[in-house]
Amino acid sequence: MDMWYTEKHSKNVGITLRVTRTLFSGKSEFQQLDIVDTPEYGRMMLLDGLVMCTERDEFVYHDMIAHPALFVHPAPKQVLVIGGGDGGSIREIVRHPEVELATLCEIDGLVVRKSVEHLPTLAGAIDGSHPKVKLHIDDGLAYIREHQNAFDVILVDSTDPIGPAVGLFEEDFYRLVFGALKEDGIMVAQSESPFYHAQIQRDMFRNLRAVFPIVEMYQAFIPTYPSGLWSFAFASKKYHPVRDFDRERAAKRDFHTKYYNEDLHLGAFMLPTFARENIAD
Amino acid sequence: MDMWYTEKHSKNVGITLRVTRTLFSGKSEFQQLDIVDTPEYGRMMLLDGLVMCTERDEFVYHDMIAHPALFVHPAPKQVLVIGGGDGGSIREIVRHPEVELATLCEIDGLVVRKSVEHLPTLAGAIDGSHPKVKLHIDDGLAYIREHQNAFDVILVDSTDPIGPAVGLFEEDFYRLVFGALKEDGIMVAQSESPFYHAQIQRDMFRNLRAVFPIVEMYQAFIPTYPSGLWSFAFASKKYHPVRDFDRERAAKRDFHTKYYNEDLHLGAFMLPTFARENIAD
């Protein structure tokens, strides 16, 4: 049986991948979860039919959601991930020796359980065994409302602004995140494709700028995401992602990163003109 | 009729686009040429079934093959394009006021004729009317053999290293290009996807380094190309693409570029770790 999965990125374009096996398929109270095996990209997780991550290219997303903020903040001790139930972001965070505690707050326990079961290269740090990792199955908004002034870095590792993540793109949410950060805290959030999602980016960055004094966008290339060009919002109370970047510390890191490096950190903020224009004031 | 075109980027993955109309389909002595209309990407040209360009995203490729070299070379007067029969590279070259003559040497006259007919936003400068453009329907190797020490910049705007373009990735060809450049000349060539084509890149950059003293890779994101991450080789006799970049001149350009800008020029050379490793000495 020659089986292909096609994710439509619009009515008129999509990516198609050969699938050899379904490892899990089921519904939580929040969403449909599928984990399948593909010959080209390894195991692949889908939520409501959208590709969340694959074993082959997840290194790009997880390097880029985690390392820029963690190499800009001079002492990232308390780090929170909202969403990110596959565990990839937590895996990267705990590679930083400065981190004392990495907390995962994921709304959907099924995503965590099935990632631990079927995506061990991602979820190794959220299987309950890591001494620096704490796990909460909870709504991110409720969690940060109760944990104000608590974190150095917060990563919003969410799905698209439809379904359970819709509230994670709104100004009220960013005000709560601002409050949950310490006085020099940094938030990073995935911010969709500059090529396909100009309007979402415009709204999101307007909402962020209403709350944070420093808001910049940076880019990464992720082959299995719509258009291949993805972006992140860097929203900060004090540190600028380029001017306050500790290039020396990043260059001296004692772990290998397949995508991130101290030069790419700077290059990621040098955006194509059309991406700049999406979020122009 | 719901018609989709799927380009397989390997046996196991591909891009799929809805197609509404075929504008041209035919075979030259070199290759199969198709031009179709798509709702998402506008008109799209395929050679031997591979997407060469679409109206919606061709600006990335053509900005990035042309502008970096033309803003590094202090006086790019004589510019040659080998391949590039759609005309997009020539269109960008003649926007530079320093350029006195832009020569297109394309092996396949059918590509030029059908681009002029069906892709006017790309081929406007190669329809015979532009005073600074000269057109040769000829084999690129034969042409440069007869035009040594003649060009400031040569752009190798080729297809993949299969079919008619296979010779354009070999050391002998780069020696001819070196000879066809003046003493401070620059060559730029498309150099495939760092994500899918590591071995091609390794061979190509080894061949280039055997000939040119300065060889660097830079990246651009092109949604309709395999993986979305594409690259170019910058091979130069004298000028370094970053250290000798005239940022001021680039910033003062009097034309709008939807992808290229003077910051992105620098960022494009800041590569992901895995791409660096593809071409490590």
From TrEMBL, chains A, B:
Pathway(s) served: Amine and polyamine biosynthesis; spermidine biosynthesis; spermidine from putrescine: step 1/1
Keyword Transferase annotated: yes
Matching CDD domains: AdoMet_MTases (cd02440)
Amino acids binding spermidine: H62, D86, D157, S158, T159, D160
Keyword tags: Polyamine biosynthesis, Spermidine biosynthesis, Transferase
Enzyme class: transferase
Gene Ontology biological process terms, A to Z: spermidine biosynthetic process
PROSITE patterns, A to Z: PABS_1 (PS01330), PABS_2 (PS51006)
Chain positions recorded as S-methyl-5'-thioadenosine binding sites: Q31, E106, D139, G140, P164
Catalytic reactions of this protein: S-adenosyl 3-(methylsulfanyl)propylamine + putrescine = S-methyl-5'-thioadenosine + spermidine + H(+)
A GO CC annotation given for this chain: cytosol
SUPFAM superfamilies found in the cross-reference section: S-adenosyl-L-methionine-dependent methyltransferases
EC number(s) on file: 2.5.1.16
PABS domain: residues covered: 2-237
NCBIfam families: PRK00811.1 (NF002010), speE (TIGR00417)
Assembly and interaction partners: Homodimer or homotetramer.
Database matches in PANTHER family: SPERMIDINE SYNTHASE, SPERMIDINE/SPERMINE SYNTHASE
Function recorded in the entry: Catalyzes the irreversible transfer of a propylamine group from the amino donor S-adenosylmethioninamine (decarboxy-AdoMet) to putrescine (1,4-diaminobutane) to yield spermidine.
HAMAP family reported for this sequence: Spermidine_synth
Name of the protein described by the UniProt record: Polyamine aminopropyltransferase
Organism from which the protein derives: Geothermobacter hydrogeniphilus
